[in-house]
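Quick check before the chapter quiz. The format below is the same one you will see on the exam, so make sure you can read both the input and the output lines.
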Amino acid sequence: MYRGAFCRHPEPAHRVGAGSRDAAGAGHRYQGETRRDWAGILQKLASCNVFGEKADVVELVQISAIGVTKHMCNSNVENTIALVLPEANAPEQSTALAQIMSLVRRSDSIAIKSEGTRVVVNAVKSLWAADTSSDAALTKRKKQAMTALVTPAHAAALAQLIGRSRRYPVLINEGVMALSLMSTHANGGLVVLDALLNPLPTEISTRGALALPVSAGPPRRTRPQPARRGARSTCSSRACATRTGRSPVEVRANVCALVGHLGRAGVVPESRVQDVTTLKESTRELLVAGAKEEGYVGTAAKKALEAWGA
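Here is the expected output.
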């Protein structure tokens, strides 16, 4: 009964807040019930326009709705499919994920941008980890959802999450892992490579924007960075941080694994060999240095160099 009543029609901003709070409670309760029955909440959340431009004046409500969405698609393939794929005869722009990504692109809030992109992280992890071999229909829809996620827009959002999260290793690691999984999909290597090499946008957080949530992890203390000339890519910024040892061991190891996979023959089309060379040149020093270390970083760096044939 509750699920059918939730956000049945588009609502103005002052009423969307109540709906999203109710959804938050529902999202925490759904785990004890049949998960597939709750997938419809994501469509209803999208239909109430909480991610639309008219609701931008209530950032706290949008953050709450993003949190509900992120929670419900964590390790849940049915909910993730409902998040990514449109309902029958509905446009792709109608999905909750499409609306969240539109919000991420137009918002000046770092909290909105980062938390909205973490929905993509959870969606990627859920789909790539799910074993649906016993359900042919679900497997088909999972593959469709995976294809819908492997796009330049989603990969760029993940790369920007990595680039802006210098003080938050948890967010960096989430972005790196999501890109690593995405790169294993057909054409995923090229999509991820472009996202890493393209210049990062200049982002300015508006005064009074919400702080990142506790799940982003504690901020790491950093020294003020000198001004840079020219465009900076995600690849160059991560290479710098990894080379100087400022990132945690797990992050550095995962970065090594990602660039190692992208440099492997056949992952990126041969027509883009020059871009692969650029990637290798910008990260070779960190891999060579990492290979001399013990533990996870050393192992990952050695495997990456082996994958390159170096």
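If your answer matched, good. Residues 1-21, 24-34, 204-209, 223-231 have pLDDT under 50 and may be disordered.
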